[in-house]
Amino acid sequence: MDQKDIIILGIESSCDDTSAAVLRNGVLLSNVTASQAVHEAYGGVVPELASRAHQQNIVPVVQQALQQAGITKEQLSAIAFTRGPGLMGSLLVGVSFAKGMAAALGIPMIDVNHLQGHVLAHFIKENEDDNDKPQYPFLCLLVSGGNSQIILVKAYKDMEVLGQTIDDAAGEAIDKCSKVMGLGYPGGPIIDRLARKGNPKAFTFSKPQIAGYDYSFSGLKTSFLYFLRDNIQQDADFIEHHKEDLAASLEQTIVDILMKKLYKAAKDLRIRQVAVAGGVSANSGLRNAFHEHAAKYGWKIFIPKFGYTTDNAAMIAITGYYKFMDGDFCSMDKPAYSRVTLQ
Fold this sequence. Notes:
Shape: globular
Mean pLDDT: 92
Number of strands: 10
Order of helices and strands: EEEHEHEHEEEHHHHEHEH
């Protein structure tokens, strides 16, 4: 190993996934994630259960990440960790572990904004020759269960939120509509799977008229709920008879809302480098829409691998790597934070 190698351990614990990754000179060596199935029975993440599971998972997950990378803890240059936003109990497990390990090893800590990490997932290198990454400035549509934002990325540490949801996030709307249909949690993969078999033009739902680049999904959720209620009065098994078409129409509506604002931003700013990030970027309908817009408008698009769409430590490690290069370290007294935007 070269003495100049920069080796970063990344730790992510913002919600219900415990993840650790090791990166050397910007190249990913390992990315280990332990998911929590315990929340499925409750139809959503239970914060207390999530934090307990993180406590059980974090030591073995970090150990596996180091073993898979072929790295000892003594070789680490720094530890990068998600400081926020997220569930406070979950964050505290990762933050406390990172502080303890960094103090024990006598190496610096790097605090990472979870949302910044999602955007920078596009810069993860899986090998030395992996250079397919966006050029600055680019637009990034960040869509997940908690966020729906259009971000102008001018540099790794210079991001401007142009528009964001004023109420529910896109992923949250999908999960809630799935729950209303009795399909289970998490709703995203279920809706995606059903939508592939349905007609996206079968039903029409409300599309909000919001100024600028901001989003709103609460009206769509209400529209969907009332639509189901009215039709169930006519046919008690309406959902079962039409679940593929309902899923396809719901997905199409959400994708249309997301892409209309993104296209407006790209056109107004004359930017053709466009990326997508976050959990909802795994959705097939959204990915297809990106390819359609690329063909129609000459966009160069960047869609993350499925492993980098959900919460993962690789995105925390790459953000930590860039901050390490800038000497941007975190002091021991920095607390976790549950809510914050990129601005």
